[in-house]
Amino acid sequence: MTGVRRDTKWWGWGDAEKRQPLSGSARAMLAELGAGETERPAPALEEVELSAATELPATVVEAAGAGNVLTGAEDRVRHATGSSYPDLIRRRSGRLETPDAVVVTEDETAVRAVLEACTRERIAVVPFGGGTSVVGGVDPIRGEHGAVIALDLAPLRAVEVDRSSLLARLGAGLRGPEAEDALAPHGLTLGHFPQSFEYATIGGFAATRSAGQASSGYGRFDDLVASARMIAPAGDLETLRTSHTAAGPSLLQVALGSEGALGVITEVTARVRPAPEARRYEAWMAADFESACELVRALAQDGALPDVIRLSDREETRVSLAMAGTGGAGRRAFDLYLRARRRSEGCLIIAGYEGSSEAVSRRRALGARGFRFGGAAYLGRKPGAAWRHGRYDGPYLRDELLDAGLMAETLETSHVWSALDGHYRAVGDAIRGALEDQGTPGIVMCHLSHAYRDGASLYYTFIAPQRAGNELEQWRAVKTAACEAIVAQRGTITHHHAVGRDHAPYMGSEVGELGVELLRTLKEGADPAGIMNPGKLVPG
User: Fold this and answer.
1) What is the pLDDT of residues 353-372, one digit of tens each?
2) pTM of the model
């Protein structure tokens, strides 16, 4: 047996040796919400109460190979949830619904054999990559089946580079850094850097139609995929490795975003680019969120967007500066600079450019002209470099907030430019109202994380005191209020977090009654026994 990863916290995010301590200014700000001084750590692993396990049929064990079937407590716990706020609350509670076993698939032949055996024995299968889903995408739901397994895809790490075509065949089990390390000797990059980059996998990127922080330049992951192979209980779906085809509706897009509900994506062929020889990250301060959105819209429609564009509203800007913990003479000088430019209560913009030195210089000049024309004040390269250095640290901060007794959760959506401001306000108001109804008013902040010619995404973060003992009910009330506001505004229920379990009830509003029926038809065709990732993507 090979490939199972145990290098992350079982109870939180990422590297067990890494923390992102709260600064003094951050703790002072959070104390107003009731953040505790005493940490509330997670229980020891041996104290966790697991759900009772059902022994797998001998045919499933034989198909996988006995050495590839893991039933130990740690493996079951590590494959019990993703990384959402409810997932972390469940882990910290010491009581978990876990898969009955973890099955490690060493190659595609093993994937087929396991799916065939599980279909015959009616065993539910949850494909498992990096475990970074924040929408309940890997919850071990048994449903009507006799047992449920987590199908660990970590060993699927093949890499094959076609330098002439700028294509790379990548195994589904590769983590983001592993893929980049494999491409680096060829002078190439995939350019896909979501916040989960360090731990999420190629298969997960494909299955959730992931968007990276540099997607404005490199493209979303579904833009990057030229072909894919998905092994379903009913057979294999493999699309041609070609630059374009007009052969009917895109079955590649059926695999992308399928979230393990149709089958197991085992590999993709991705479009790659030469690794950038130059990078420039910088920061600007806009007067307010509304005018800054107009600034970003102009850049997008003029073809002048940076590769990374991140616009924080006033509340997120305030919190980000507090979290940074900058103090003393440096902070006083910074505040004086902002006051002199009438931007003391402005909105922070991070802009990043990557590519050849000539291209970065040219594109940055176009962007700077747009920022200045839109009334933004230049803050220099240091804040941009600091953001890039800490771009993957957010989930570690969430662990610290949980330790302090605070709820810290995110959700995202998108809309067209003409509706974006109303959408921004309606969803934010819904979150604030729900927190107040729960008796736990908190901080609600937002940033624009991806921009297009026709619209943009909005990414909300909210922090509030936990309702001790009722944390999940509190979360559910706020999540429901936000989702209902999104649906009422006709925005998308998810821009890049995917559907999973949490958003499945809203798919009717997203794609309509016929759309839901078509999804069910796809499900029945690819997975007649309904074993694949029950309860996700397809309503009901």
Assistant:
1) 999 999 999 999 999 999 99
2) 0.95
